[in-house]
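Question thread 4412

I'm putting together a teaching handout and wanted feedback from people who do this every day. The idea is simple: show students a protein as raw sequence, then show them the C-alpha cells that encode its fold, then repeat with a second protein so they can compare. Below is the first pair exactly as I plan to print it.
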Amino acid sequence: MHLLAALRQAVLYAGCAALMLLGCMPWVAKAASCADMQLLRLGSGVVTLPSGTVGQPYQYTLHATGGEPPYTYHAGSLPPGFTVSPAGELSGEPSPLPLITVFVAGVRDQHDCTAQQTYKLSIVAPWQPSPQPVPKPAPKPKPPEPPAPPPTPKEPPAPKSLTTLPLTDTLAAPFPSESAVDVYMLTADIFKDKDVLIELKQMTVDATPVDISANATDGKDDVGKDDTGKDDASNDDPAQQHPPVNDVDQPVDETIEADVNAQFQRLLKPLLDVEYPGEELFKAALDTRLCRFSADLITATANKNKLAAPVDEESGCPPKWDDLPEKVVNTPSNPLPWKELPQWLMSRAMRDLLIAKARRSHSLLQPPAPLWSGKGCGCVRQLSGETYGFYPYWHNADKPVPLDFSLISRINVFALWFRDNGDLVEPTWKAQQSTDFIREAHSHRTALDYTLYHNDWRFLKSATDDEITAMTQRLAVQAAKFIDTPLDDLASRSHAWVPGFAEVERYGNGLTLYLDKIPTDDDVRPAFKRYLDKQIRELIDELRRRDRRYVLNIVVRDEDLTAQGSVWQVERMTDYLRLAESVDPRGGNVASENARARSSTNLTLRYLVLLRQPTERGMRKVLSMIDGDKKIDEEECRILLHRVIPILSTGASAEPELFEDLAYASDNFGGAGFWAVPSLDEPAGKMTAGRIRASFLQRIPRAEQLNAWICEYRWPLRVAAEGLLLIWLVAFVIYQSSCRFRQVGLVYPLGLLLGAIAFLILGALLLVGDPRLSQLRQGNALLGLLLIVLIAIIGYHMLKPRVEKP
C-alpha cells in the first residue's frame, strides 16, 4: 500500500511539473525568439514619406524587417483624416490645409516582439497652372529709324529675384530657435550707446531744475528732514515737490551732465565684462549692484551729516519694477527721499534698456572646437571638492586661452544641442587639430563633460507619451555614443597598448543636461515635467548600461529649487540619486578621500545650481531647503548636499566676497563651479584661480613645478621607462646565458648598471608625479615591492651555483 501511494504521488508531481513546463513554454519561446532571431525593425532615423496632396486620396504601405511574420501595425498622433490598418496600410484624404506632421508607428510580430519608427509626412497644396497671358494686339508699324551705333559691351545680367518657393520651405526654419543660447553681458561700449546716452540726458534734464549744485553745502540741507525727505514744516504743494518733467531737447548744464555720466559709470563698472547665462541672473546682478551702490551713497550721506544710516531691510530695494511707470513723469524733489534713490539712479526704462543691450545670442549650429592651453600648470591637484568650469565656444580668442587645469576638476564644453525629436546635433570635429583641446585636457587629467542644451518646448503641447519616450531614448543613446567616441590620432591610440597604463582616450567623461527657459504656461508645464523625468531616467539607464565611469550633471536654477510650485523637489532629486548611484542610506559607500560620498555604480550624479546674486543668500536658501526636507533621512541629505555644485559667474564678485562664497561652498556642498572657466589672461580669472587655490587646495605639494612637468609628460616617461626596462631585461638574460658576453669585460656589466640606474631615475620620477601611481605613493605597496625585490636579489645570490676557478 505504501508503495502504491508513493508511486501515485510521484505520478501526480510529474504531471504537475509537465503542466507547468507546458504553460511556460510559450513565454520561454517568446523570450528566446525575440533575443535570438533577427531584430524587428521598421527603419532607422526619421523616415520621410512621399508627400500627399490636399483633396487627393493618399496610400502608403509600411514595411517591417526581421522578426517573424505575420506583422500587426499600429500608429498614434496621425494627421487628420489618416488611419493605419493592421496590415500596415496608411491611407486617408489629407485635410484642406497644407502641413508637415511627424508621427510614430509600431509593429508587432507573432512572438509579440515590437518595434517603433518615426515618420515625417508633408501635405502640400494641389498644383494649379498659372493663367495664360492675354495676347496683346500687334503694334502699329513705325517709320524706319536711323541706324543705331555699335553696341557697347554690357555687364552680365543680375540673377533673378526669388518670386516663389516650395510650401515645405515656408514651414522649415533654417535656424531653429532652440539652436541658439542667450547670455547677458555689459561692456564698456554701453557708455557710448546712443539709446543709453538719450536716457542719461533725460536724467540730466530732470536734474537741472533741481539745482544739484546748491547741495554743495556739505549736506546741511538734509538735516531736519524726516525719512520721506520732507521738512517738518513741509510744503504740501505737489507741484513744487515734483515739478513737471522737462523736455530732453532743452539745454542742460554740462557740469550736471558730466556728473550724471560719471555716476552711471561708477554704478555699472563692476558688471562690465561679466557674462550671465540667463536673463534672470543678469536682472538679479543688476538689482544687487543697484541696491549696494544706493546703500553706500545713503551711508556716506548719513556719516557726513553725523546721522544714523537707515536699516537696509527697510529700503524696499530692489524696487518693484512692474509697479513703476515706464517713463518718469516728474522730476525728483530736492532733497530726495532715501527710499527713492534706487529708481532715481536707474529708472525702469534704463533698466529695461540695459537688459536689452546686454543680450547676446550665440548659435549652436556649427560651433568651433575650444581653443585653450594649460602648459606648465600640471595635473589636477587633490582638491577638497569638485571644481567645475563652463567653456562656451564663443570665448575662443585668436590664440589659445590660458587655463589653470590644476585647479579645475571638470570642464563643461558648451557646444551641443538637440532637436525636438531628440536627435543630437554633433559638431564636425573630425580633423586632428579640432580635437587638440581634448588631448590637452586629458594631459592634465581634467575631465570633459558636454552640455546637452535645449530651450524651446512648444513641441510638448502635442507630443504623446510614446513620442516623448522615443525622443528621450534617442538622445540618451546618441549622447552616450558621442562621448564614447575614441580619439583616432596615433598618440591617443598608442596609449591603449602601454602595459600597466593602458587607457583608451575618448571624447568625454560625462554629460550635462541643460534645459533652459523652463515653460511657465499651464498647458506646457505638466508635459515638461513628464519629459524631464523621462529624459533623466533614460540618460541614467543608458550610462549605467555601459562599462566605464561617467558623471551626469543636471543644470538647475536656484529659483527652480526654492520657489513655490517649482519643477524640482528634494524628494525627486533624491530618487534620481538612488537610481543613478544605488545610494546606501546607512552610509556604507562613504569614501575616506575628502570625506565625500562615493557612488556605488559607474555613474555619479551631480546638480549644478546657477546662483543669482547675492550668491551667499542663494546658497543659504538651497542649503536650508535640502536640509529642512523631512522626507529624506539625514544620511541621504548629507550625500545629496555633496552632489550639489553652486555655479558662480566669474568676475561677478569682489575678492573678499568670492572668498566667502567659496569657503561656504567648500564647507556645505560638493564644490563650486564657474561660468565661465577662469582665464589667466584676465584679472578676474587670475583672482578667481587664486581664491580656488586658497579654498580647495588642502596641501600645496612639495616640488610643485617638478610634479607639474612629470604629470604633463607622463606618457613619454611611461613609454621610456617600460622600454628601458624591457631592453635591460633582454640584455640581462643574454648576459647570464652567454659566456661570450661575460668575457667582454667590464663594459657589458657597466652598461647594465647604467641602464638599471636610468630605469630607477625614470621610475622615481613617475612615482613622484604620475597620478596613476598615487595609491602606490600613499600606501605601503611601494615598501612591500622594495622588500620583494631585495629578497629576490639575496635569494638569487644565495642559490646561484658556485663554480670554482680551474
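The second pair follows. I'd like the answer to focus on this one:
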Amino acid sequence: MTQNTRTRKKSSLTVALVLVLAAVLLAGLFVLLPGKAAVPFAPQGAAAAARTQPPPEGATGKALQQWADEAVAAAQAAGLNTLLFEAHPGNQVYYQSPVFASYPGGEDPLALFCRTANAKQIAVYILVAPYTAGVGSMHPTKLTFTPPEYAKGSPATTATLLTLGDIQYFDPADKSYAKLLVKDLAYLAQNYPAAGILIQDPSAVSPSVEELTQLAAAITHANAKTTAGLCDFNELSGRRKDLPALVSGGFSLLVPRIESEDGSLYADCLAAKAGAVWPDTLSTLGGEERYYALATANKLPGAVFGTLGSNARHIGAMVTALGNPLNAESLPVPGTLQIGTPKPESTTTRENCLILGTSDPAQPLLLNGSEVARTTKNGSFAVFVPLAMGDNSFTLTQGETTAALTVTRNAPEPGTGGKTPTPDTSLNTELAGRTIQITGQIASALSDPKSDGAISMTLKEGMTATVQGTVETLRSGKIVKAYLLESGDYLLVRNADLLDAPLPAPALSVTGTTQSDRLLTVQLEGGSPLCYPSRTENTLVLDFYGASLGDIAPLTALPEQIASATAEKTEKGARLTLQFAPQFAFWGYDLACTDTGMTLRITSAPVLGSDPLKPLAGVKVLLDAGHGGTDFGAAGITGLVGGACEKDVNLALAQVLRQRLEQLGATVTMTRTDDSFPTLQDRYALGGEQLPDYFLALHHNSIEFVKDTNTVNGIECYYFEQESLPLAQNLLSAVSVSTGRRAAAADTAYFYVCRQTAFRSVLFEFGYLVNPAENESCFSAAGLRSAAVGITNGLMADLGVFEPLA
C-alpha cells in the first residue's frame, strides 16, 4: 500500500478543498477543437476545486459511472467548478497507461471522470505522485515494467527503488525510470482533457530542479494548453530557493504546503510576486492539512485545504473566506521610550516591581546599564525587578533618551487591630409572610448568602416572593441582610422591595400563544411569582413558588411545537412541563414579568440557508465590544502611556469579526459601534430585545502587577448557562488554532451578560494586554484577523458546519 493510498483510505468519505484563484493561468473557457492532442477544459476565471477520492476498488461499468456522478454532484452542491483527481498515487494508476500497469478490465476511470465533469462545466486537474512506489518491504530493489499490449516494441524496463523507513520510492536520478515517467506524463497531457497536471513533490527523495522541470516540459510539449504544476512541497523540502527556477522551467502553478499564517514563507520566492494580495489566516480555516496554491502569473494567490468532510457548507465557507480578505488596521504602538507604570515617584510594600512601557525597537534598551531582552516587534517591554528596602532608582536608556523613576519600598504597616463584626446567622422571622418584589433587571438567588458565586437561579425584575425570614451575613467586613425565600435560597435585601401588604397567592393560567419565525410566545396571567426554570434538550420545566396553575389548554393546540404540556401541583407551588415536538429544535427561553402576569418566550435553533457560500445564513449574532467611553477596560502597555487600551481593541476586533460573519451570511448587530458606553443593563436588554442566536462579549485580559507579565498569556472563555459550554469549548479550540495562543479550559462565571437563557452567550478574553508580545499580537492587523477567523470557525463548529477542532 502506498503512503498516498493510506491517506486516501483513512479519509475515503471526505474531500479536500482547494481554492486556486488563477485568473491568468486558467482564464478562458476552452472549446473542443480538432487535432491530435486533447483540448483542456478549464473553468471561466478563478477555479474553486476539491480533491476527489478514487473509485471503489475493482469498480467497473455502472459502479464507475456512479462514482463519477456522485463526485460531480457533490462538487455542484458545494458551488465548485473544478475537481482534482489523484490518477497516479504512486505505483498505481486509474487510467490506461503506456508505462504502468493500467486499470484492470480495460476501463479508464480518468477518461470517464473527465467526460462526466466536463459535461457539467467542471474542470479536472490530474494529481500524479510519480516517485512513490509502495509501503513495506519490497524485494528485490529493482522493479520491472512490462509494457501494455498496445505499446508495441517497448522493451521491459527495470527501475531502481529507494527504501526510506517503511516507504519505497523510485529514484529520481534513475534515467531509465525518468524516460518512462516522461512518456506517461506526455500521454496524459495528450489524451485527457484536463486543465492541468500537478506533480506531487516528495521531500523524502528531493528530486532536483532539473529532474522536475523535465516533467513539466513533458506535459507542456505534449499539449501546450495543459498547465504543469508542482504541489506538496514545504520549507523542509528546501524548495524555497528553487521556486524561480521551477517557474522558468515550466511550472506555471505552484501549490506549496505552508505553515505560516500570512503566507510570507513563500511569497518572496515567486517569480511574479508583484502586487500579490494575500488572503487572511488561511491556515486556520479547518482541515487536517493546510495548503496554499500560488498562481505565479496571477496577482491573487489561492489555497489548497487538506482532507475535509463532504459538508458543502464547510467548503463554501472557505471559498467565501478566501475570496473576501478581511479589512483590518493595526492599533498604534508608540515606538518611543516611555514608562507606563509605575509612576516616576512610587511607593510600595512589595518585594518586586513591574516596569511596563514602550521603546524604540531599532535601538537597544538598557535598564541601569544592562540590556533589556525584548521579544516584540514594536518595542513594548515588561521588566520585573526586585526591590530593596528604601529608595530604588531605575533609569531606562536608549541612545540619548532616558526615562527615570524611583520606587520606595516601605515595611508593611501593622494591622489596626479593629474588630470584625459578627453577623447573626440565625433566622429572624419578624418579616415572615411578607411579600417582596425583585427590583433589579436580574437578581441572584443564592444557596449561600456570603458568596456572589453561589447562584442557584437568576431571578427577573418584577417577580414576587413570600419571605420566610431574614439572616445576616458578612460581606467586605460589613454585615448585610438577606431574605430567605420559599425555594430555600437567599436574596440580598438590596435586590428587592418589601411591599406594604402581602399579595394574594398568584393563580396562573395560559391565556394565549403567538408564533413568528422561530419564536413561540406564551402569555400567562394571574401574577408573577418566583419561578425556577430548568431544561433538557427537548423539555422545559417551570417551577412556580407559592402559586397555583389553572388552564393551560392553549399549549395543547401547538402540535408542531409542543408534544405535551402538563400542569401539576407541587409541595411549594405549581409546575408546568413542556415537552417539545421532535421537529421543534428547542434552543432557549426567556421569562419576563408584566403588570398582570408573565411572558414566556421560547426560541428554536437557527436554520441554516441552502447556499454553501453563505453557510451562516439564518444565524443571528450580537457582538458586545466590552467597555467603551469613560470605561477604558484594561489599560495594557499602550494605554498606560496614553495610547490605545482595551476598549479600543475590543471595538476593532468586533468590527473585523462582523465583516467575516456577514461575508458568510450571518445577520450581525453590535451593542456599540463607536466609543460609547452601554451599561451592563443596556447590553443585557439589547439581547432580550433582539433574541440573537449567539451573544459574544469580546474582551482582553489583564492582571494585577504582582508578577512578571511576560509569562502571563493565553485566551479564556466564560459561560454561565450550561447550554453555552459547548460554544465556549468550540471557540477556545478554534481561536487557539487561529492565533497560536494557549487556551485555558472553558470556565463558569456570573458575568452579567452571560446570564441569558434565550440564546448562547459567552464572554471571551483574547489575550493579556500586560504581556508585551501578546499586547502587540492583539493590536496587530494579523492578530485581529486571526481572532476573527477563530471565532467564526468556532461558531461554525458549534453549528456543525465545521468539525469541532477539539
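Top answer:
Good format. For the second protein you could add a caption like this: The radius of gyration is 34 Å. The chain has 14 helices and 43 strands.
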